[in-house]
Write a structure and sequence with these properties.
heterotetramer, A mainly alpha (98), B mainly alpha (170), C mainly alpha (639), D mainly alpha (501), A: 98 residues, mainly alpha, Helix Hairpins, 3 helices, 0% strand, elongated, C: 639 residues, two-stranded antiparallel ribbon, 27 helices, 72% helix, globular
């Protein structure tokens, strides 16, 4: 059944969120975001199959492109942060503190 | 029938991989877990008759992106003492899980309410490169162009961010 | 008979134009002033021109039949809103013509006198500009065709009074006196404006959109309800007490003596302060119908007369004495118009303007001769040095005291007799007492200043008669003070009451007849009281005056019964203190409280929410998830 | 007058303001600004002359803007707005020709301000009005915030937040009114004239009425919403104080007459006494507060607030005389108190102080300045023959009709103003010359010629007020008739129901 695929995507997405909110390691956070994108992709593709149109797949393709871009930028930022602070702890960056 | 079996196997591997991603302390281990998840997702795409996406998932995601991440992790040469101490990690995990249960439950409920069909392989070129390409370059041309622009911007941005600064700029 | 003429406007306009020209010249050249002769020549044009036009008007009016003796000139609609319609127009009838005559005549004389008195002053041009402005305003006041136009002059003279009182601006006290005059006058103006407003709303259906002027008001006056009419009369009288220095608003007039002496003579004795009486007489058709209002006016007037006369007996400053005497005489006039003897009151205005101007100018000569010494206890024996001044001052004092046959006698006695004839015997009695006091203080002044031995030898030696430009007006005024009374010789002396007859068309007056015997007895009695006053003054001050510190009641009198102190303590100081309190306490702490409270609330809320702003992106993500979670719980209910 | 005169009048300053930013020099910016405001002045005067005084809207310009919501870009002038328009057109060149030169952005802001104010005055559509109303605040925010005195930031925050709070309430009110119209007639419109057909009362209308009133009361300001005023007026640069007090405050008054009276006639009639009393309290309270001030500008700020109280009284007394008086006083007050702010600005430029205690004897150094100041001051205290008298007299007269007692209290305006102004004049211009004052120089020829027209206007308005009143009075008559019409209908309805029983 197609909805099983969707349920899988929900589960992966939630695990991705869990990663974002529970980890302080910036690498893990970045990868969790990738995971969430993947979950979204899965939903797109599943819907494409469900409706038998290919637009969902196109969107998935674009998400892949965006994810690649995001990964590149994210990694660049991580390098920068590491160079500036020497740490990978996201708690070090607290400029938003009120 | 074999599709469902395969899906179950892939799904389990994907979930296990993603849990590994979240739970492992060292990013290298997490990255490898993520790669596992991605590869199993590629399998699932194949089950959904998305041939091109299957390929892209393997090449771009599991290949290029993961390689880049792994490369950077190794490049930074992370040791145990560089890693943040995350003693409260499990508190957050449990708390987050509790928070996410209603979210997941709601979303699953929504998904379940969609009238489903039995999954089977769809023929006559569904998801193949040519058909996909035709749709992409007729209906989705402008978004495609924008995406390419985005990639260009990203390229420049990444260079600017990670590039070597002169002393005077600091 | 054609009532519309086009030259009325010239009367106020000439002095106003003079004021404008002089003011401009002075303002532009004050660093290196023009010759004084030029200024004095230009300054004389206005008053003299007005005087000529006044004579023309007088003769024109005389040719008209007595019942419809008036001239008008409507220039343009001043403003009209709804059924209020006010024309900028002028109106001359016998009453205003009488005022015109003595205002322009005495105004011109005092202008001439000023040429000598102000010679060598720094702001010569400014002085004459203000003086011309004053004259123009006064003429507008007198000629205005309705209460609103009158108010231009009413306020204009107040402004000029302020400007001239504080003429020597470098001294703070002078400016304070000017401020006081303006502010106290404003209190009166409040009454006036409200009176006019109430009058308008009482009449507006009767007016029906017609011009709000005296002719229409008089025509519609009968439609006023009793309450409204009384309110109008009393409110207008408040205005009159301010302008004419009656209790409780008389306090500004003695202080107004800070101005140059000719100013005191013209503004604060002869003309401006009589505006209140003019106004009451102008509205005689109202006051005559409300005897209660008349009684209030009469009683306020006579009590003010008494109070001011008592204070006047104990003053040391020559000008202050005259100032209190002015207040007192104004009280007489109000008593006169209050008992509905309008022509008597107005006639007293007329004679008073002569002898009081004379006294002030005489005092001015003394002050001029003694180099601005004003304390009568530092003068003495000036008779030898200044014989002419002595003569005219004695004439003035006799006229003021009401000694026959000088001008004051006829007018004052007319008022007292009318009060008696109309049954106000208490007012008559007080009036007679005041006459005695008046005689006392005026001769106290004469004896102390001109008789006895000089008490300040140095200034005595330097004293001299003023130049002719100052003495000629004195002589003319002295002649006026002596003979002006004969213009209104009552029937008792087989006269024909010329002024009363002339004024009759303007005033609503009911003559009361009393027996010739009563009139004779009253007259003899008041002459006796006057003689008593003069005798007492002679006994006390003529030969060996003693300047000892006053005690008891006299001390109170010298300190003006502490009225100024009372006002200061109970009105001025609380007012200022309240102002300070508002700006220092109420404004920031009470009125601004809601605003401050709001900012405080936001501050507290900010502190509260700041705790949640850990600064870690992860924590914000957690908030997001919390929200998502709650939303999901909520949404799954409806699914 | 050409058809789109109003549009030109509004947008010329705004566009010129934007262009001024690219001027090569400060002086050029100032001159450009001056000429632009001069053109606006000429258009304004021409409009005034062409205005026929029949009571209707003239020079109407209407073009659809957001048709789906019935929003039109509508402009027009009638008797109510005429004098406000004239004031803001005529007095504006002054701020360019006197006072020290400022940066280009300053002049750009001033021009933007003028355009927005003219827009708010001419708007016949509520949305257009609201937009201009809000834009008006932007230049004020910048000019006070950048060019103001030492406590400018606090003052800017206060005025901005205060007025924005008010205008947001008004926005709710506007939407409510439009919605009511929609419910009743099934069409969306924000056009003033069409919305006037509504007569809202009871229920939420009461709240909407108060929302409008509070918005205008803050802008005017009416006691107790005035607390932003002393700070803002004192800290603002002279030109801004002038604009605030001479023109912007008047738009609050204008708004009250234009929008509140027609929409909420019954509510207004039942609340009038309350607001009238507020006006009286404000008039006396601010008048007394002015006595306690050492800073001339702060004193004038309170003076201005006190006079705005009188104007508010005139509106609340709701008769032809008082409303005419208020409208006239709007212009008169601009020529007196507004100009006094400019004079104080000049004084501050020359002496670097506004402290009354430090001054004294200015009249000896600067007779022309003292004379001009005195004329403006006397107009401010309402001396007959100057512009201030007519308005005050009509307002007092009208208030006496409304209530004898309240009229008496209103009359106190004659006294309170004189007290502090004379005191200030004495301390600043008379007495002994202080050390500070010795530095003072009289007005230059240019300055004399800049202020001379204002002086002439002060006297002209005092002596020939009918020239102005005749143009606005028919509109006032209409407005008053319109105001009482719903109340009369209700009375008639009540009578009918009584007779039915």
């Amino acid at each position: 059944m197609i909805e099983d695929y969707l349920v899988l995507s929900v589960i992966l997405f939630c695990i991705g969120i869990l990663g974002v909110i529970s980890r302080r390691n910036v690498f893990t956070v970045l990868m969790s975001i990738e995971l969430m994108l993947n979950a979204a992709n899965l939903a797109f593709v599943a819907f494409a199959r469900l409706n038998e149109t290919m637009d969902g797949q196109i969107l998935a393709m674009m998400v892949i492109a965006v994810a690649a871009a995001e990964a590149a930028l994210g990694l660049a930022v991580i390098i920068l942060l590491h160079r500036q602070k020497g740490r990978l702890d996201s708690n070090v960056f607290s400029l938003l503190k009120g | 029938m074999y599709i469902d079996t395969l899906f179950s196997i892939f799904a389990l591997i994907a979930i296990a991989g993603s849990l590994g991603l979240v739970l492992f302390r060292h990013p290298m281990q997490s990255a490898l877990c993520l790669a596992v998840t991605m590869i199993s997702l590629a399998g699932i795409y194949a089950l959904l008759s998305a041939k091109l996406i299957f390929l892209l998932q393997l090449i771009v995601y599991a290949g290029a992106v993961m390689a880049m991440i792994v490369f950077i992790i190794m490049f930074l040469n992370l040791r145990e003492k560089d890693l943040p101490e995350e003693r409260e990690r499990f508190t957050y995990l449990i708390g987050g899980a509790v928070l996410l249960i209603p979210v997941a439950w709601f979303m699953i409920k929504v998904m379940k309410s969609i009238p489903g069909v039995k999954n089977s392989i769809v023929g006559n070129g569904f998801g193949s490169i040519k058909e996909l390409g035709q749709v992409l370059f007729t209906n989705w041309l402008v978004p495609f162009e924008i995406i390419s622009l985005l990639l260009l911007v990203t390229l420049v941005g990444a260079v600017v961010l990670a590039g070597i600064r002169r002393e005077s700029n600091d | 008979m054609e009532h519309t003429v086009n030259y009325l406007v010239c009367i106020p306009l000439l002095p106003l134009a003079g004021a404008f020209v002089l003011g401009m010249m002075h303002m532009l050249t004050c660093k290196n002033p023009l010759p004084e002769k030029l200024y004095s020549f230009l300054a004389m044009l206005g008053p003299l021109g007005s005087l000529i036009f006044t004579v023309i008007i007088f003769s024109t009016l005389r040719e008209m039949p007595a019942e419809s003796r008036y001239l008008t000139q409507n220039m343009f609609t001043w403003f009209s809103a709804g059924d209020l319609h006010v024309d900028m127009g002028l109106f001359a009838d016998p009453l205003s013509t009488l005022f015109l005559i003595f205002v322009t005549f005495i105004g011109s004389l005092i202008h001439i006198y000023s040429i000598g008195y102000m010679a060598g002053e720094e702001n010569y041009g400014k002085y004459f500009a203000y003086f011309n402005l004053f004259l123009g305003s006064m003429l507008i006041l007198v000629l205005g065709n309705g209460p609103v136009v009158m108010f231009i002059g009413w306020e204009g003279v107040g402004l000029c009074s302020y400007l001239l009182i504080s003429f020597y601006t470098k001294d703070r006290d002078n400016v304070l006196a000017g401020n006081k005059a303006f502010i106290v006058n404003r209190v009166g103006d409040l009454g006036f404006v409200l009176g006019v407003a109430v009058l308008f709303w009482g009449l507006h259906s009767a007016l029906g959109g017609a011009g709000f002027d005296y002719l229409n008001i008089k025509a519609g006056a009968s439609t006023l309800t009793a309450g409204t009419g009384l309110a109008v009369c009393l409110l207008l009288f408040i205005g009159a007490t301010g302008k004419s220095a009656q209790f409780p608003l008389y306090v500004w007039l003695p202080d107004a003596m800070a101005g140059p002496t000719p100013v005191s003579a013209l503004i604060h004795a002869a003309t401006m302060v009589t505006a209140g009486i003019y106004m009451v007489a102008r509205f005689s058709f109202l006051y005559a119908s409300y005897p209660f209002a008349g009684d209030v006016v009469a009683w306020v007037g006579i009590l003010t007369a008494l109070l001011a006369a008592i204070i006047g007996c104990f003053q040391r400053d020559i000008k202050k004495i005259l100032a209190y005497s002015t207040v007192s005489q104004l009280g007489y006039m109000f008593a006169g118009v209050g008992v509905a003897a309008y022509s008597a009151g107005i006639f007293h205005v007329f004679t008073h303007s002569f002898f009081k101007a004379l006294l002030f100018l005489g005092a001015g000569s003394v002050i001029y001769a003694l180099h601005h010494e004003q304390d009568i206890w530092k003068m003495g024996g000036l008779k030898k040095k200044m014989p002419l001044t002595w003569i005219v001052m004695v004439i003035g004092a006799l006229a003021l005291a009401g000694f026959p046959p000088f001008a004051g006698f006829f007018s004052k006695d007319e008022i007292l007799f009318m009060a008696l004839a109309k049954g106000h015997w208490m007012i008559w009695l007080i009036g007679v007492c005041v006459a005695g006091l008046t005689a006392f203080y005026s001769f106290r002044l004469i004896f102390l200043v001109f008789h006895g031995k000089p008490r300040d030898q140095k200034s005595y030696d330097n004293a001299h008669e003023p130049p002719p430009v100052m003495t000629v007006p004195l002589i003319i005024l002295a002649v006026g003070a002596t003979f002006a009374g004969f213009f209104n010789l009552p029937a008792f002396f087989s006269g024909d009451s010329m002024v009363s007859t002339w004024l009759a068309p303007s005033l609503l007056e009911h003559h009361s007849e009393a027996s010739r015997v009563t009139e004779g007895v009253a007259m003899v009695l008041s002459i006796a009281v006057v003689l008593l006053g003069i005798f007492y003054a002679w006994k006390k001050f003529a030969s060996k005056p003693e300047d000892k510190p006053l005690t008891g009641f006299a001390k109170w009198g010298e300190d003006k019964f502490y009225v100024d102190e009372f006002y200061n303590a109970f009105i001025v100081q609380p007012w200022i203190a309240f102002g300070r309190t508002i700006s220092n306490f109420i404004e920031p702490n009470i009125v601004d409280l809601p605003v401050k409270g709001t900012t405080w609330l936001y501050g507290v809320l900010g502190m509260l929410f700041k705790v949640f702003q850990a600064g870690y992106v992860r924590v914000y993500a957690i908030y997001m998830v919390i929200g998502l979670s709650l939303m999901s719980i909520f949404l799954s209910q409806s699914l | 007058m050409f058809e789109s005169a109003l549009t030109v009048m509004i947008f010329l300053p705004i566009v010129a303001g934007a262009l001024i930013l690219f001027c090569p020099a400060k002086g050029a910016a100032r001159i450009t600004g001056f000429f632009v405001s001069l053109i606006v002045l000429m258009i304004g005067v021409q409009l005034f002359i062409d205005f026929d005084g029949q009571g209707g809207m003239q020079f109407v310009y209407n073009t659809p803007w957001i048709p789906s919501l019935g929003i039109n870009f509508g402009l027009g002038v009638d008797g109510i707005s005429l004098l406000v328009l004239l004031t803001s057109a005529v007095l504006f060149p002054l701020v360019f020709c006197v006072l020290k030169e400022q940066s280009r952005a300053f002049y750009a802001n001033l021009l933007l301000c003028q355009g927005a104010m003219l827009g708010a005055i001419c708007a016949t559509d509520l949305v257009v009005f609201y937009i201009f109303w809000e834009i008006m605040l932007v230049p004020i925010f910048f000019t006070i915030g950048i060019y103001g005195g030492p406590r400018r930031l606090a003052a800017t925050m206060k005025i901005t937040l205060y007025t924005i709070a008010g205008s947001l309430l008004m926005l709710v009110g506007i939407i409510y009114v439009a919605n009511c119209y929609h419910q009743q007639f099934g069409v969306w419109t924000f056009d003033m004239a069409r919305l006037s057909a509504l007569s809202l009362s009871g229920g939420f209308a009461g709240w909407a009425f108060l929302m409008f009133m509070i918005a205008f009361a803050i802008k005017i300001p009416i006691f107790p919403f005035h607390t932003w005023l002393p700070e803002a007026y004192t800290e603002a640069p002279p030109a801004t104080s002038f604009v605030l007090s001479a023109i912007m405050a008047k738009i609050g008054v204008y708004g009250m007459i234009r929008f509140v009276l027609p929409f909420f006639a019954l509510e207004f009639i039942s609340w009038a006494t309350f607001f009238l009393v507020l006006g009286i309290i404000g008039m006396i309270y601010c008048g007394i507060a002015a006595i306690g001030q050492k800073d001339i500008k702060r004193m004038l700020a309170f003076c201005s607030a006190s006079h705005m109280g009188i104007i508010a009284i005139g509106i609340c007394a709701m008769n032809v005389q008082s409303l005419t008086g208020s409208l006239f006083q709007i212009a008169a007050h601009a020529t007196s108190t507004g100009v006094l702010f400019l004079f104080v600005g000049l004084m501050e430029e020359r002496l670097q102080t506004r402290n009354i205690d430090a001054l004294g004897g200015l009249a000896y150094r600067a007779p022309i300045f003292a004379t001009f100041f005195a004329v403006a001051m006397l107009s401010c205290v309402g001396l007959p023959g100057t512009s201030g008298f007519i308005g005050e007299f009509l307002i007092i007269l009208g208030t006496v009709k409304y209530s004898m007692f309240l009229g008496l209290l209103t009359g106190f305006t004659l006294i309170v103003g004189v007290c502090y102004l004379l005191w200030m004049f004495q301390r600043v211009f008379y007495e002994k010359e202080s050390e500070t004052s010795a530095r003072f120089t009289d007005l230059t020829v240019g300055e004399v010629f800049s202020f001379l027209p204002v002086m002439i206007i002060i006297f002209a308005m005092g002596i020939f007020p009918q020239f102005f009143i005749s143009k606005i009075e028919p509109a006032v008559q209409q407005q008053i008739a319109q105001l009482y019409a719903p109340a009369q209908q209700q009375v008639v309805a009540n009578e009918i129901s009584v007779t039915d029983k």
